[in-house]
Amino acid sequence: MYGTQLPTARLRQLAQDVGFDLIGFARAEPIPPSSLMSWLEAGYDADMDWMGSRAEERLDVSVLLPGARTVLSFANNYYRDDAPSQGSPIARYARGRDYHSTLRDRMKAFRKTINAWYPGLGTYGGVDSGPMMEKVWAARGGLGYVGKNGCLITESHGSWVLLATLILDAEVDAYPEGPVADRCGSCRRCLMACPTGALVGNRQVDARACLSYQTIENRDRDVPEAFRFKLDNLIFGCDICQQVCPLNRKPVFAEDERFVPRAVASLGTLELAALTPEQYKELIPGTALARARYDGLRRNAVYALGVARQAHARPLLEKLSGDGSELVRSAARWALLQLEP
Ligand code: B12
Ligand code: SF4
Ligand code: SF4
C-alpha cells in the first residue's frame, strides 16, 4: 500500500483538467456478491461469459490490484440533441468518437500526472470492458445511484454519462458519508416503456431481452423474431429507458468535441443497410459502432427496414437477400416477408 493519503481536492482538479465532468472516491471494499450472483444465476448475462468467469475480480478489486485502497470513478456527459430530425437509429452514446478511447485517453493523462506526483503509486484502470463493476463504484463514490432502468443516474447530468474506473493502492483524504438518495420513488416509466420487458425489477437488466445486447453483442446470430419487431428505427443500442426517465428531462448539452456526432449519425436505416465495405471503412472505425461489425450493423438495419415496412426498400432488400453474409441474407428474407400485404 502507498504510504500517503492523497488529497481529493487536487485529484478533483486534475480530473477536470484532463476532461472529466465528474469524479468520485470510494473505499476499495469487496462488493457483496448477491447482485452479481443472482443476475448470473438467472442467466441475464446471455453469452457474455466474462461477467461470470471474472466474478472474483469483479467483486474484489484487490485481486486486480494487490493493496487496493480506493476506487476512483470518472464520468463524462455525452448528451447531445443534434441528430437528424427523424431521429438517428444509433443510440446517443455511440454517435461521436468511440467513448472507450475518449475516456481511456483522459484516464491515461490522469494516471501519467499522478504517477509523476506520487512515485511508486499502484494503479489499475478500465473503461467498460474492464472487469470492474463500474456502476457500483460510481454509486459508492457518490456520483449517483442505480435507477430502475439499470443505469447510474447523476444529479447533474441524469443518466447520460459514461464511466471510467481507476483503482489506487492509496487512501484519499475524504470519502462520501453515505449513499446518494434514490430518486425513483414510485415511478415505473422505464419499466413500462421498455419494449421487450428487459427491465426485470431490482434494477437488473436481462441482457437476453435488451435491444442493446441484441443489436451490439449478439452479432453472430439472428435476433430472435419477437425482438426484431421492436427494432423500429433502432439499429445500434437503445435509449428508450433513459429517454422516458423524468430525471433526464433537463439534460446538459455536451460541448465536448469528442461527442460531436460523426457523419454516420446522419444516416438513416436504408443508407446503413446499403453500406458498402468502402463506406464502412470510411465511416465506422473510431466509433463504438465497430463492435457490431459490418455484417451485424447491416443485419440490424435490414431488420429495421422490415419493421418499417417501407415499399421503397424492396429493391435493396432483394439485392441483400443474395448477400455474401448469411446473417444479412436471412435478415433480408425476413424483411421482405414483412413487406407482403
Ligand atoms: C453488461 C453490460 C451491459 C449489458 C447489461 C446491462 C446492465 N444494466 O447490466 C447490456 C448489453 C444489456 C448493456 C446495455 C447498456 N449499457 Co452497458 N454495460 C455492461 C457492463 C459491461 C457490465 C454491467 C454489469 O456488470 N451488469 C451486471 C449487474 C448485476 O451489475 P450492475 O449493472 O452493476 O447492477 C447492479 C449493481 O449496480 C447493484 N447496485 C446498485 N446500487 C448499488 C450500490 C452498491 C453500494 C452496491 C454494492 C450494489 C449496487 O444493483 C444492480 C442490479 O443488481 C458495464 C461496464 C462495467 N464494466 O461495469 C456497461 C455499462 C453499464 N453500460 C453502459 C451503457 C451506456 C449502456 C447502454 C445505455 C447503451 C445503449 N444506449 O444501448 C445500455 C443500457 C441498458 C440498461 N438499461 O442498463 C454504461 C452505463 C452508464 C450509466 N450511466 O449507467 C456502462 C457503465 C459502461 C461505461 N463504462 O460507461 N450493458
Ligand atoms: S435499453 Fe431498451 S431494451 Fe434495454 S432495457 Fe432499456 S428500453 Fe429495454
Ligand atoms: S424512469 Fe422513473 S423508475 Fe425509471 S429510472 Fe427514471 S425515475 Fe427511476
TrEMBL record:
One of its GO terms (molecular function) is epoxyqueuosine reductase activity. Gene3D superfamilies: 3.30.70.20, Leucine-rich Repeat Variant. GO terms for biological process: tRNA queuosine(34) biosynthetic process. The keyword Nuclease does not apply. The lineage of its organism: Bacteria, Pseudomonadati, Myxococcota, Myxococcia, Myxococcales. Residues 174-204 form the 4Fe-4S ferredoxin-type domain. SUPFAM superfamilies: 4Fe-4S ferredoxins, ARM repeat. This is tRNA epoxyqueuosine(34) reductase QueG. It comes from Corallococcus aberystwythensis. It is an enzyme of class 1 (oxidoreductase). Its EC number is 1.17.99.6. It comes from the Bacteria. Keywords: 4Fe-4S, Cytoplasm, Iron, Iron-sulfur, Metal-binding, Oxidoreductase, Queuosine biosynthesis, tRNA processing. The keyword Oxidoreductase applies. InterPro entries: 4Fe4S_Fe-S-bd (IPR017896), 4Fe4S_Fe_S_CS (IPR017900), ARM-like (IPR011989), ARM-type_fold (IPR016024), QueG (IPR004453), QueG_DUF1730 (IPR013542).
